[in-house]
Amino acid sequence: MEDLKQYRQVWQKQELDDKQLDTNTITKMIHKRSSSIVKWIFYISIIEFVVLTLINVFVKTDWNELQELGLYHFLIGTSIFGYIITVFFIYLFYKNYKTIHVTDTTKELMQNILNTRRAVKYYIITNLTIIAFALLYSTHVILQAPEYADIMSDYNSGHLLVWVIIIVFILFFVGIILLFYLLLYGILLRRLNLNYKELLSS
């Protein structure tokens, strides 16, 4: 009878050890996957930055015309601000990757996943806001030009109709960029979210 009791205790201990081993194995796998995902978020942000820079360099822009319209300084300022914001978020993604790469505890890993998701969300919202504001303000300035005076003179018809069309176009354009971001980052964020849920249930 005493032997049976000892055997049961050993068996229960072995079961607990196996369960703990399985949990540790799962956590290590999730850690490795999460680190890889955050690394790809960092890489994609760099690629995006390089591609946009190349577009700005090689796409011809009539700066003289923009200066005549009064948009030269605004667009230069907006571009510089956009670059600063992008570099800041790239640094943030790099910091998240380095942090998650050396994370030891499950709690720290979960917090790093949340930080990465939040950073990507703010990155997308900030970029879309800058783009929408730049388009709206630039269009407003362009419509003040003499050649558009006839269209904008009648507030009840021309002015209101033009602005409705402009806002719809801007929303459509921003929506396309949002879909682009969701394609780039959405899949990775969904995988991070699944990792987070697995950690919660483990």
List keywords for this structure.
6 helices, mainly alpha, 91% helix
Short overview:
This protein has 202 residues and is mainly α.
Determine the fraction of residues in helical runs and give it as a percent range.
Answer: over 70%
Radius of gyration: 27 Å
Flag low-confidence runs.
1-21
Summed up, the domain count is 1
Gross morphology: elongated
**Overall average residue pLDDT:** 80
Q: How would you portray this structure in words?
A:
- The structure is a single chain.
- The chain has 202 residues and is mostly helical.
- The chain has one domain (2-201).
- The chain is 91% helix and 0% strand.
- Helix 1 runs antiparallel to helix 3, helix 1 (2-58) runs antiparallel to helix 6 and helix 4 runs antiparallel to helix 6 (155-201).
- The longest helix has 57 residues, at 2-58.
- The protein is elongated.
- Mean pLDDT is 80; it is low at 1-21.
Topology:
Blueprint: H1 2-58, H2 63-69, H3 72-101, H4 106-142, H5 149-153, H6 155-201
Helix pairs in contact: 1-3, 1-4, 1-6, 3-4, 4-6
